[in-house]
Amino acid sequence: MVHRTKSASRIARGLREFVAHAEGKTTIKPLAKIIQVKKKLNSPILIAGFPGAGLVGSISTSYIINRLHMNQIACVESEFIVPGVIYVEGKLRHPFRLYSNERGDVCVLVCEAPVMIQGVCSVLDAVMDWALHNKVKEVMVLDGIAVEGLPSSRASIILSSDGIEADEANLIHDYNEEDAGGIYPTTAFVGGMSGGILSSCLSNSIPSKAIFIHSTTGIPDPEGAAIIIESLGKITDNTSLKIDTAELRKQGAALKTRMEKIIQSLAEQQQQGQDEQAQSTTSVRDGVMYG
Prior knowledge:
Number of helices: 6
Distance between the termini: 104 Å
Shape: elongated
Largest sheet: 8 strands, mixed
Structural class: alpha/beta
Strand order of the largest sheet: 1-3-6-7-2-8-10-9
Strand content: 15-25%
Helix content: 25-40%
CATH topology: Rossmann fold
Number of domains: 1
CATH architecture: 3-Layer(aba) Sandwich
């Protein structure tokens, strides 16, 4: 009987070790600075951007990092982050990074590599542990909403967890409030890493907001990123986030002009093809001989 108990104990311990190994692990490692001290953070706002429609999340966070002269303070390491590095601005960098400004009151979370679906919760748990440990006072998520063609509306959509700001999430355009009795006038589901980090904020009682904008999938959208950054500056009391977006606006205007020319050229080619096909059909019909 004792022998069986010890065997069962060993099996149970082995099973726990196997499960722990199978679940993988995620850690956030601080980076050593030249002065060899840890960066002190002052209840920062955490801004998160992920690759999505128009890459507006990635473009906007990169722009904020450059404009505020932020330094990388940590990286997220996980078995669930697809292995790889990012080469940017002449350096190899970890794909999942954390930055801070000099005052330590603004941090930016950048993720530029896919996270395996089975490990999203593990990665987000590590990020939330870091946020709680560093007394993050609010999380802002920046992302795009995919649309077909060039978006006609360029207004940002702001979703908040506190209900103070007037949400503009009119994502269900065919909604009739009178027919529904005024219940849930606006409804939307946010998924992926953006939705995951917002859900984690709710679970850990961290105030959060999401700033979205309609954007075309597969085409970089600096104009959309500029609009998101401008909206960010309006809804926060941190003056350092009131950032000049003239450069992004200029890039967006140039890209929009190129896209319009491409679309016009494609339309002309399509029309020309249709005209040639019509002429060919007429020629064949006119040349038919009946016996």
